[in-house]
Automatic annotation (TrEMBL), chain A:
Keyword Membrane listed: yes
Protein name listed in UniProt: Uncharacterized protein
Organism in which the protein naturally occurs: Nonomuraea longicatena
Keywords: Membrane, Transmembrane, Transmembrane helix
Segments passing through the bilayer: 33-56
UniProtKB/TrEMBL annotation, chain B:
Protein name: SigE family RNA polymerase sigma factor
NCBIfam families referenced in this protein's UniProt entry, alphabetically: SigE-fam_strep (TIGR02983), sigma70-ECF (TIGR02937)
InterPro entries given in the database record: RNA_pol_sigma-70-like, RNA_pol_sigma-70_dom, RNA_pol_sigma-E_actinobac, RNA_pol_sigma70_r2, RNA_pol_sigma70_r4_t2, RNA_pol_sigma_r2, RNA_pol_sigma_r3/r4-like, WH-like_DNA-bd_sf
Domain RNA polymerase sigma-70 region: 12-71
KW NADP (keyword) present: no
One Pfam family in the UniProt entry: Sigma70_r4_2
SUPFAM superfamilies registered for this protein in UniProt: Sigma2 domain of RNA polymerase sigma factors (SSF88946), Sigma3 and sigma4 domains of RNA polymerase sigma factors (SSF88659)
Keywords, alphabetical: DNA-binding, Sigma factor, Transcription, Transcription regulation
Residues of the RNA polymerase sigma factor 70 region 4 type domain: 98-149
UniProt similarity note: Belongs to the sigma-70 factor family. ECF subfamily.
Native species: Nonomuraea longicatena
The organism's place on the tree of life at top rank: Bacteria
Length: 419, 174
């Protein structure tokens, strides 16, 4: 063995330990399912291009390739280009006057920034800026599960839009949403194909939450004050979750078969839980035990699978065997995740067996015994660590650490979870 | 056993070694993950393949070269610098940093040849097969790569020279 081989082995020891198997299988399955649709689209586009070329004069220059954005200096933050942006890994809200600590590069007060998987950061200048100083208006942003589309409230359009980052195509919601309808906590849910977009807010106020079908240009009202956490693949059934005053799941079916959303059902969850996004099987939800804000006691990080129809905790396996009963209780302890002294928030699924979980350190008011301490969130940018949690074993592996001022200020791809 | 199960078996056995190769090629943990993921999705698309480890390695190396040619701005940022002063080629940590830094400045094909010849320990013929080129091209690419490494890490120049001589002798024996 040569000395260089030893050195190269030494360097390779720093390689990450990855488990990509299920993610790759899921991606392959998605591509396989999309292929016929893409083929149809390609035929249509080819025909259109052929017609266009024929009608152009011989001297005309046709630029068919999408325009690539100009290469940026690493670390530079620029406005989102019109097209040619790769999939994003996360988005975060920037406030430029944290109590202490470093201000993010390219900070715009109350503005969103998206970060691509390659590490490029862009300001979403088209999105409505949030009220400064944690005001009553929260302008939300959502990222599709594949990271290729984002949804936000477009100031110019006066409503929500969905932007395809690569092509630059923008779809505008079929109804205006006055800015005053945005609450202090506003949630957006974007379907993976970008066709459906649901919006809700807290406090509920009098204005409706709603779901849009951007392709058919339809709108339906939704129960207000709950977070949309899942949508069936056909867009016909939406699942929403509440965490206060009690943990509750609402399922609204037949969204588009009548002019009013119907077939709504609400179930209460046992105890105090924060529900994560609807699982890929469409029948279960994982929830994490919620910590009351008034105390640091009773910390528990068990992940509890919950059937949204019954509100009862179920065995994780039910998601996969589809027994339909949903009544067996099983708790899956999380391993390798700091739960005793951290808040835990569940976010998008990254495969049939893995869900992302965000952890952030807790701080207790008096820091002595925690019995009567009031919990305060760090006013400056705090670390939010993203983990992939295996829902079979509860084992977690760290994916990345981002900095944000609130869990609501950090958005990951996929359906949202509560808080 | 369906195709996903056999793919799972392959991944269980070879995922980590492919990750290591991807990391040596890209020099960045996130880029390595991106590269590997994009390659393995394609591999699974053609599954089952003959000799999956070799097929995946070939796809990995060629995808890396293609990426680097298209995405010039994704150059890695070394996390440490070798010392300004002259250093001994016997100081392992410094040698490692110097090699890592020099590797990051090689053109993609030269870097691929170094990884295939000196990490994967492939012969010139095997390397040529992976890169879809002639043995002569592999020889000249390796020669240029080592010359560039000598220039980029002058304190290690004698050791790189010694290496080239040794590989030539081994190649002649094979």
């Amino acid at each position: 063995m040569t000395w260089l081989r030893n050195v190269l082995h030494d360097i390779a020891d720093d390689a990450p330990r990855l488990d990509l198997t299920e993610r790759i299988i899921a991606r392959r399955e998605r591509r396989r399912l999309l292929a016929p649709a893409l083929m149809t689209a390609a035929v249509t586009v080819t025909a259109a291009v052929a017609v266009a070329v024929v009608t152009l004069t011989a001297t005309a220059v046709v630029r068919l390739a999408p325009q690539e954005p100009v290469a940026e200096r690493p670390g530079a933050v620029t406005d989102l280009p019109a097209r040619g942006v790769g999939p994003v890994s996360h988005a975060y809200l920037t406030y430029c006057r944290p109590d202490d600590g470093r201000v993010p590069a390219g900070c715009v007060e109350g503005g969103w920034q998206v970060v691509t998987r390659n590490g490029r950061t862009y300001r979403v200048a088209q999105a409505l800026r949030n009220d400064t100083g944690y005001g009553i208006r929260r302008s939300p942003l959502a990222i599709s599960g594949d990271g290729r589309k984002i949804a936000y409230y477009a100031t110019g359009a006066g409503t929500f839009v969905v932007r395809d980052l690569a092509s630059g195509a923008v779809e505008t919601a079929p109804a205006k949403v006055p800015k005053g309808w945005l609450g202090s906590i506003t949630h957006l849910l974007l379907s993976d194909d970008g066709r459906y977009l649901a919006f809700s807010k807290r406090p509920p106020l009098q204005d409706p939450a709603m779901v849009f079908d951007l392709r058919e240009r339809l709108v339906r009202p939704l129960p207000n004050g709950a977070t949309p956490i899942g949508l069936s693949p056909d867009g016909d059934t939406i699942t929403l979750a509440e965490y206060a005053p009690k943990s509750r799941l609402r399922t609204v079916g037949r969204l588009w078969s009548s002019s009013l959303a119907s077939d709504a059902k609400a179930v209460d969850l046992p105890g105090n839980h924060l529900a994560g996004p609807l699982s890929p099987d469409g029948r279960t939800v994982l929830a994490v035990s919620h910590l009351p804000d008034s105390t640091c006691r009773g910390v528990s990080g068990n992940v509890v699978p919950v059937d949204p129809r019954t509100g009862k905790t179920v065995q994780r396996e039910l998601a996969y065997v589809d027994t339909g009963t949903g009544e067996i209780v099983r708790r899956v302890p999380i391993g390798g995740l700091p739960v005793a002294d951290h808040r835990v928030y569940l976010r998008g699924w990254i495969g049939p067996r893995e869900i992302t979980a965000i952890t952030t350190p807790l701080t207790c008011g008096d820091g002595r015994d925690g019995r009567t301490a009031t919990m305060t969130r760090q006013p400056s940018y705090a670390p939010y660590t993203v983990h992939a949690v295996n829902v079979d074993t509860g084992s977690a592996r760290k994916l990345a650490t981002y900095r944000a001022q609130s869990p609501l200020h950090l958005v990951l791809p996929g359906f949202p979870g509560t808080l | 056993m369906d195709r996903n199960d056999s793919f799972r078996e392959f991944m269980a056995a070879h995922q980590q070694s492919l990750t290591r190769t991807a990391y040596l090629l890209t020099g960045d943990r996130h880029l390595a993950e991106d590269l590997l993921q994009s390659v393995l999705v394609k591999v699974l698309g053609r599954w089952p393949v003959t000799n999956p480890p070799a097929y995946a390695r070939k796809a990995l190396v060629n995808q890396y070269i293609s990426w680097r040619r298209r995405r010039v701005s994704t150059a890695e940022l070394p996390s440490a610098e070798p010392p300004e002063r002259s250093y001994s080629s016997e100081e392992p940590t410094i040698v490692r940093i110097a090699v890592q830094r020099a590797l990051s400045r090689l053109p993609p094909k030269q870097r691929a040849v170094i990884v295939l010849r000196y990490y994967e320990d492939l012969t010139e013929q095997e390397t040529a097969k992976v890169l879809n080129c002639s043995v002569g091209t592999v020889k000249s690419t390796a020669h240029h790569a080592l010359a560039r490494l000598r220039a980029l890490a002058p304190d290690l120049a004698p050791r790189f020279s010694e290496l080239e001589g040794r590989k030539t002798v081994e190649g002649a024996r094979r």
